[in-house]
Structures are given as C-alpha cells and as structure tokens.
Amino acid sequence: MTEPLTDLSRFSINQMTVKQLTLPELVSACVDLGVPGVGLWREPVQQYGVEAAAKLVRDAGLTVTTLCRGGFLTAIDPVERAEALGDNHAAIDEAATLGTDTLVLVCGGLPAGSKDLHGARERIADALAVLAPYAAERGVRLAIEALHPMYASDRCVVSTLGQALDLAERFPAEQVGVTVDTYHIWWDDQAAAQIARAGAAGRIHSFQLADWTTPLPEGVLNGRGQIGDGAIDMREWRGYVEAAGYTGPIEVELFNDGLWARDGKEVLAETAERFVRYA
Amino acid sequence: MTEPLTDLSRFSINQMTVKQLTLPELVSACVDLGVPGVGLWREPVQQYGVEAAAKLVRDAGLTVTTLCRGGFLTAIDPVERAEALGDNHAAIDEAATLGTDTLVLVCGGLPAGSKDLHGARERIADALAVLAPYAAERGVRLAIEALHPMYASDRCVVSTLGQALDLAERFPAEQVGVTVDTYHIWWDDQAAAQIARAGAAGRIHSFQLADWTTPLPEGVLNGRGQIGDGAIDMREWRGYVEAAGYTGPIEVELFNDGLWARDGKEVLAETAERFVRYA
Q1: For site-directed labelling of A43, which of A213, B44, B53, B76 has its Cα 20 to 30 A away?
Q2: Is B4 among the domain residues?
Q3: Distance, in angstroms, between A162 CA and closest chain B CA?
Q4: Helix, strand, coil percentages, rounded to 5, for chain A
Q5: Is B231 in Cβ contact with A115 (below 8 Å)?
Q6: Cβ of residue A215 closer than 8 Å to a chain B Cβ
Q7: Is residue A137 part of a domain?
Q8: Rounded-to-integer distance, Cα B234 and Cα B95, Å
C-alpha cells in the first residue's frame, strides 16, 4: 500500500489548472497556500516576459517543475517542419531561462489528409534527434507525453506510454524521457509495466495528475476532472511511479471549464486539499 | 497490397447506421441496392417482433451478420448481475431466432463509484463462463468488442483488442471471439499483431468499419465518420484481417447525427459506394 501524503512538499500546480489567475496572482496564491511548485505554460509566460517570469517565480522561492509545451513535430511540409523546430528551440531556451529541467512535449497529430500514424511517429523521432542535444546543452530534458488515444488524429500520435518510451529510448535517458499523466493512461492495462520500464531507465521526467470524468465535452479538451471526482485511483498510480523510483514533484494539470469559471485561488486551495486527500 | 473490392458481396449495413429507416424500409432498401447483409440491433427488432423480423429478413434473402448487442456485465450488485445475465440469455435467444451466428458484446463500464478496472474485467469473465455455453448450444458465438479507451469508464472496460483476446481465450474459440472495429482500434500500434493473434485462433467473429473524424461531439457517442471521411486507412485494416484468415462479412456501423438527419436510403447508397471505394 502506498502511504498517504501528509503535506504539499511534492505538490506542483500546473498553470493551466488555474489559468484565470495572472502569473503574479498565481505566484502570490502559491506562496500564501504553501504550494512549492508550478508547471508553467509558454503563452502566459511569453506574455509576461520570460526573464521577468523567471525572476518572479525565483524571488518567490517556487520551483518550476515543467514548462508546457513543446512538440507538434509531425508536419510533412519542409517549411512547417523548420518552423516547428525553430519554435521548439525557442521553447528549450525559455525552459532554461525559467530554470526548469523539463520541457513537456505534445508531439502532434496527423497532418491534414494523412492516415499514416507510423510515418508521423518517425518524423517525431527525426525531430528529437535535432532537439535533444540542443536541450541537453542547456540543462533541459525533453519529456514525451503520451496523450489519450482520443487525441491521436488531431493532437498527438503518441497514444500510450509504451509508444512514448519506444521513441524516448532512441536517445540518452538524461535527454529524452516521458511524462506520466494519469488522465491519458489510466485505461491501459500495460501502463503499470511501462512505468516500471520508464523508471528502470531513469526516464520518468514528469508525473502529472488529472481525473477522468464523463460525459466528455465537445472537442474533449476541457473535461479533465478535479482529483477525486472521477474514475482514477491516484494513489495506485503514485504507487507505480514510486515503485519505479520516482520521488519528484507531482503536478496537477486540469483543463476544466467549470474550474476556470471559479475563483482561481479557491480552485488552487481545493486542488491542494484534494492532492493530499487522494494522491 | 490488399486488392480493392469490386462489389458488395461482403458488405453488410449495420442497422444503426441508418436508424431513421424502419426495419421493412431497411430490408427493402437493401434489396433495391443489392446489399446482402445486415447487422441488427435488439431494440428495433424487439419493437417489430423478433419472429416477424426473422421472417422479414429471411424472405428478403438477407444475411444477418450480427446482432448488437449483449454485454454490460460489470455490475457488482447481485440483483443487477442476475438481471444482466437474464438479459444476455434473451439476447442469445434473439440472435438464434434471427439466424445470425454472432452476438456482439459491449462489456460495460465501471459501476458507480468503482475505480477497479481489473475487477470489472474479471466480472466479465465470470459472466462469459455462464453465457458462452448457453450461446454455443444455440449456435451463437459471442464477439467481445474492444471499445475505444474514451469509453473505458462508462461503457466498456475492454479498451484494446489485446484485452478482448485475453478474455476470449479463456473460452473455446467457437464460443467466444472478438469484434474488430476500426473506429476503436485504429490508434493502437499493437492492434495489427492482435488481429493476427485473433485470426490464428479463429476468433475474428466480426469485422466492422467506421472512420475517425474530429472534433468529437459532446458525449463522444455519435461522431463516427462516414467511410473515407476520416483518419483511418480502411484498406490497410481489411488487409490485416484478411492476412489473418478472415473472409467474412464487413459491416459498416456508424453512429452519426449528420447521417441520421438525412434520407436513410440515400445514406445507405452512399455507404455502399464508400465501401467499394475505400474498404
């Protein structure tokens, strides 16, 4: 049995969970509530200014557990591919500036008109060969996130933790690993074994939580459930990553229209409380 | 390369694809358009009368390729479990009356409040042990359908073809096999190997087509794309099942609000045309 958590020392709030908060509001709420870590997103960080954001979180004593996100590496068109690589180089630079060691990758869906999942996955590998050494030189690890198979066509052709590891293992573990996110893998009876595989190789670079609730909303993007509201046994999954040797931060990343409509600090407090109760 | 189909001899229309048609309208449209097979659903068949429906399709010379659907076998409550078994016995009787050899099973999601996928899958196995011999005595095979992982909590805890086979292989192949449905498995890089496994054991009891289109609608039930409109290479998947030895009917089963809003016979004609062009 995995022991219950007793405090927030491993808790990190992903910025998207409370995107109604400005970056200074988020940082202030974290300090007030004793939340030690944040996972940041590129767009709001860019809006605030990357250097300024880095100073803001550093001065507050917060750890930036991840930057979300790079990726979208499946284009066939050479111009689009070059643009995607350039954008990922920028994301790596931003991660380094923010002082996080982990850039999460959402690898991209099928290009318009394509039905070739295998080819798309190979193009991801080709791009990683360019990006991984660049990231390593800046102290940043790439963390491939398997997304739920319902996103396979339009968002991420990497649908299982096993596929993510098949890609990651073509590169050194300190350069490319995986993000383990309960929302995307909870249904998969192979996932526990794949977590063990990832942990043994030192490739669990991020661990994220979200709960599975139904009915799914139109477009299936913004229905991630608050921890404890859904079908996923969070403690069971924490047990798997810890048995695999992972002792790092645990980030809660929810995209949820209902949570976004509420007071952001109240949602952060609720999320912290749920984290201790269920994770 | 899989050879293109040249005619409708292996085509079957699943009744749900054109649910706007009454059963006599469906039968008449199939005869007019040269469609040789139909997959029927219990509710409209019961409404028409099972014996009468059997006579109607038999007199028209149609083959009933499947009856959809039994299943929902994951309840914990003993009364609910007994009701589910009773309902599945009735479904088997109906399949036998209709003269089809295959009852498709949608196995059921998590009971309210449960987070135990493994336990739910074991309860399905327990139920199959009761149902499979009953079905075999009536000349009916059970075909476990893996549903897309986005249905894992509320509809079917069997999310991959591999899981479906793990269940089926506890029973004789002539009693329990699988339904291979492109919509549910197209994202899975293990599925081709699992089709080979299923075929080698004589367990491909049904082959169904639907295409994957996005954005998914709210509730994700009624967004199955017309053949050729989406991300799935139908001919590739037909190649896999044929390489595995399957030569039976190919059923097109679409749940699609847009198709349901149109003239049913026109949709049937379009579906038959798409079948020859893409499958």
Answers
A1: A213
A2: no
A3: 10
A4: 45, 20, 35
A5: yes
A6: yes
A7: yes
A8: 28
Minimal CA separation from A188 to chain B, in Å: 8
- Interstrand relation of B211-212 and B224-225 (parallel, antiparallel or unpaired): antiparallel
Nearest CA in chain B to A235: B115
ipTM score assigned to the predicted complex: 0.96
Q: Does the residue B165 lie in any domain?
A: yes
Contacts of A218 in chain B (CB under 8 A): 215-218
| Nearest-neighbour CA in chain A from B209: distance (Å) | 15
In a domain, B84, yes or no: yes
List pLDDT tens digits, range B55-105. Answer: 999 999 999 999 999 999 999 999 999 999 999 999 999 999 999 999 999
**Pair B119, B73: CB distance under 8 Å:** no
Task: Write out the residue range of the structural domain in which residue A222 sits.
Answer: 11-278
Q: Which residues does B243 contact at the CB level (< 8 Å), separation at least 6?
A: B196, B199
Amino acid at residue number B203: R
pLDDT tens digits for range A160-176? 999 999 999 999 999 99
pLDDT over 70, % of chain B: 100
Cβ-in-10-Å burial (0-12, 13-18, 19+) of A4 comes to exposed
- Judge contact between A172 and A222, C-beta under 8 A: no
Asked if A113 has any chain B CB less than 8 Å from its own CB, the reply is no
Domain count, chain B: 1
Are A187 and B220 inside 8 Å of each other by CB?
no
Give the H/E segment covering residue A98. helix A78-98
The minimal CB distance from A163 to the residues B118, B148, B189 is found for B189
Treating both helix axes as pointing N-terminal to C-terminal, what angle do B161-168 and B117-137 enclose, rounded to 10 degrees?
50
The mean pLDDT value of chain A amounts to 97
CB of B212 less than 8 A from some CB of A: yes
Residue the block writes with tokens 């097979």: B37
* CATH number of the domain to which B86 belongs: 3.20.20.150
pLDDT in tens, B175-217: 999 999 999 999 999 999 999 999 999 999 999 999 999 999 9
A247 interfaces chain B, CB cutoff of 8 Å = no
Find where tokens 């299923």 sit: B198
